[in-house]
Amino acid sequence: RKAMRGQPGELDSYRGEGGTVYPFYTANEQSFDDDDTPPPTPMWSNLPPPAPPETASRWKAVRKQISVAGRFWSAGQDRAEEAAVSALSELLQGLVAQGALSLERRLVEHRDTPPGAVWPHGWPPRYTQRVLQLPLTEASVLDLVADLSAGALPPLQYVAGLLHAAKASLAQLPNVLRHDVPTGCAVTVVGDLHGQFGDLLHVLRSRGFPSPTRPFVFNGDFVDRGPASVEVALTLFAFQLLLPNSVFLNRGNHEERSVHALYGFQRECNAKYAPDAGGAAAYELFSEAFEHLPLATLLNGKVLVLHGGVDDEMTLEQLERLPRKEYAVNQANLLGTGRPGLVHPHMRARLAEIAAREKELRPINSALWNDPCAEPGVYPNRYRGTGLLFGADVAAGFLERSGLGLILRSHEQVPEGFHWPYGPGRHLATVFSASNYAGKTLNKGAYALLGATGSRLSDPALSPLPLDAAPGAAAPAASPAAEEEGATAEHPFGGLRFVSFDAEELPRLRVSQRRHQLVASAVLAQRDELLAAYQAADRGATGELPVDMWEEETRRVLRTPPMLLPPMRCFLLGRDWGGSPTVRYQAFLGRFRLAVPQLAPLLPYRDYLVLLLANLDAKRSGAVSSRQFAAACKALHSQFGAAAALCAKPEEVLAAMGMAAGRGS
Question: Which residue among 44, 210, 353, 537 is least enclosed by CB atoms within 10 Å?
Answer without folding.
Answer: 44
